Amino acid sequence: MFSKGDAIAIDMPMTVRAVIIYLAIILAGYVVVSIADSFAAREIATRLRVSKAKGIFTQDFILRGGRKFPLYSKVLGAAPLKAIVLPAIGNDVGIPLREQDLSWKDFLSSVDYHPRPNYYSPVYNPVDAVVNILFSSGTTGEPKAIPWTQLSSIRCTAEGWAHIDLKVGDVYCWPTNLGWVMGPVILFSSFLNGATLALYQGSPLERSFGKFVQDAGVTVLGTVPSLVKAWRNTNCLEGLDWTKIRSFASTGETSNVDDDLWLSSKAWYNAIIESCGGTELSSAYIQGSLLQPQAFGAFSTATMTAGLVILDECGVPYPDDQPCVGEVGLFPLYLGASDRLLNADHEEVYFRGMPMYKGMCLRRHGDIIKRTVGGYIIVQGRADDTMNLGGIKTSSVEIERVCDQADESILETAAISVSPAGGGPEVLVIFVVLKKGFTSQPDKLKMIFSKAIQSKLNPLFKVSLVKVVPEFPRTASNKLLRRVLRDQIKHELSVRSRI
To answer: What residue stretch is flagged as signal peptide (predicted)?
Structure first.
């Protein structure tokens, strides 16, 4: 069906079979194209086109909460590629297939005439051979196609060993998907470190997931902060025994200190290792470490082989021992980081316009980070989430931290700033999602937020508008899309100005 080196896509939940298919594609000398199962046909088509995939493994349906959601039909609408279709339940697919496509059963039976070897010799490739094509989350336009090499798998594995202390005998669980960076990361980290990978089918928001963690004897559990917030808010883990967990890991968003304390209490107050990186780095550039004292919601060190500086507004690095806030600049020599993109200029995206430091051009990552007096690092958000309020620069994350704690009705907040339709200084707008069963008027929240921000951040900051919404727009990897909220409020202010 395929020629060596072909790109073959996987678009399905992270099941046992999906993991086997992922490993088999690499073992046989092909390249995996990772696609999240939540994407619409148009998003699938973009990824298949950019990667030049020659085929795709998928499922007939996705099962969630006892309901069936179509997946094969979305793949049909994306591209005319050959599809190998797995059943969500049972042994037979539950829908008719195109003539060119194969069921999983027929795919396996097509080699029945071959005698089964006791040992299959894998295809050996050089270290810079591509094994996986992943995509950025697309928060700033068309997703970047990022090739992972064999070195990428070694890098993320080493990080799991060094920072999370992953080892033989561990049971490692992290709800994710092969379409996002954490999918391949936990797969390689588990197997190359000799740990067991725990896979759960269903929503991690439910108590049933917590019971799975208990019954599977999970020893290392990965989360995202919004998941922890939901567990705490619904109290769905009450009565479960998570004391086999010896460490947690967290990534994807800025953590809430109170939520982290609550989570840690479920497992003898063991550490939560924060991790912040990127698909193009195949790893984190800052992380916690069990060899150092840890602080909730903070990072204690740069990761192995990663070097960084924090830049001031003129692009000049602060001294390494000085508390400061600024955009991070990464050292260009970084084990496992990308050196190419399939659909963009790698040099333009990551290096052009970055300052020189000790004879090397720094690599762009886009995070605003804060180094504290104690030397810990706190992520303040993205460079494009920086605000200028009355001539004072601050970050969305910093304001959200204060607002999240301002009233008991608050589930989460999103802070953005926009210039008025007629021009002028930026105004601060807070979007709010309320906890279930709570109601609150925007004007009242506006007063509460203003008072909290002025007392805890800066007395000159003023909230201009509060909007209560049922939920926030997010990428499929759960990243908050502040630019969507910003566009919404810009449009609203523009309409108001014309009335």
So the answer is: none
